[in-house]
Amino acid sequence: MKKITLLLLVAALNCALLQSVYAEVKLPAIVSSNMVLQRNTTVKLWGWADANEKITIKTSWLKKSISIQADGEGNWKCIAQTTNSKEPQSITIKSKESNIKLENILFGEVWLCSGQSNMEMPMKGYAGQPIFGSAEAVAKANNPNLRLFSVTRVSGSKTPLKDAIKYSPWQQATPESVLKFSAVGYLYGKQLQEILDVPVGLILSSWGGSSVQAWMSNEALSKFQTIDLTNRDIAVKPNAIPTALFNSMLNPIIPYTIKGAIWYQGESNVDQPAKYKELFPAMVEDWRKRWDIGNFPFYYVQIAPYLYGGNDLTAANKNSAFFREVQLQCLDIIPNSGIAITMDLGAESPIHPPRKKEVADRLLYNALNQTYGLKSINFAGPVFDSMTEKEGGLLLKFKNEEIGIYAHNGLEGFEIAGSDKVFYPANAKIIDRKAVLVISDKVPNPVAVRYDWNNWVKGTLLNTNLLPASSFRTDDWPDATKAKK
What we know:
By secondary structure, this protein is an alpha/beta fold. The chain has helices spanning 2-23, 117-120, 134-139, 175-179, 183-196, 218-221, 244-250, 273-291, 320-329, 356-371; strands spanning 36-38, 42-48, 54-59, 66-69, 75-81, 89-94, 99-115, 143-151, 167-173, 200-206, 260-264, 298-301, 337-340, 383-390, 393-399, 405-406, 414-417, 422-425, 427-431, 435-439, 448-451, 462-463, 472-473, 481-482.
């Protein structure tokens, strides 16, 4: 009898403790002191408390307090209007059991940085794989107006998590914090902060080797494939498991208000160009619906040239040029998007180009022109427009060549074919500073041209802003071949 009474007493105490814990207001990891809230807009604040708990939120910039009540499951959410003030702000959140104060909050531009290893790659680089210019950049990193938050690697989840399990909290950019942060993300945010002269907040959620499927929700991905994780070990390679990273590393930061997103991913889907053309736009559309702030800017990086399995390949699942083509085509599918072309930045090996500043620059040019209205900033390289016969060859004309096209040391990587669909290496030269003449004595009656249509190439076609053209083709042949050497 005494034993039963003791057990009942322990159970009662545990119940009381649990009620006490749940009664306290809890905030998601990303809502904390030192955060950057998107400026001059309505932002979402949310968290958890006891069921039906009454909560009062007082901010340093609003005259009136915000009074809300948690729902029957303890969830609560509210919106608050921010301003353009550059002064540090504070938020106090009170309930019957809680008195939380968030301090040193800034209003600014908030950007999400996501993707796989080329986005995740920190300023310190990988083993034997450097980031060019990182030592100087890190040495100059102290900036109280640039704040960083990272959702760090965690085993995937079969269902969407409410909060981040592992993370690096909001902190000021310092040499120590920047060294471990995404090089592309930091170099993008640093320049954005300096040019706009406003605070900038960067949210990093990325994982090397991750597929686009891993970053998609079950609702979005299930439109294209069956998802059954019942018997899947979610801890084994979660970066390759459909929906796993969305659930564990992206859902926990929704709906934190952002300005836009930058994305560097694709290498893990390089053998699936046709599928990626469906999945990638669907992912972006789904993210935008979940954030519920409209078609926020989405700027992404085209994968750089890299040897992969070899060169002189014609099959779409072997030749990364087909994938780069799809990434370029996604511009016309995804509203309010932009692409950073990296044809001149790749390396035969490794797959992580060290020139990350140029990548960040090209993402930045998209944002400055398209998001922030600085129309004098050119953000796009030459894009194939039309083709005519000339002098036994083919004359190519381009968009985005208002003041001409350029090559450092001549053009390379052009191929030409006749109606037999066999492509031969061709000579190419710039005509009148705005067009390219492609010709080969092996093809007397040419009908099609391809440029840099291989895995590993050295992009040579630029405009006078030194922005490169993507690899491209003027045909749509699925059965073309290359001439034997």
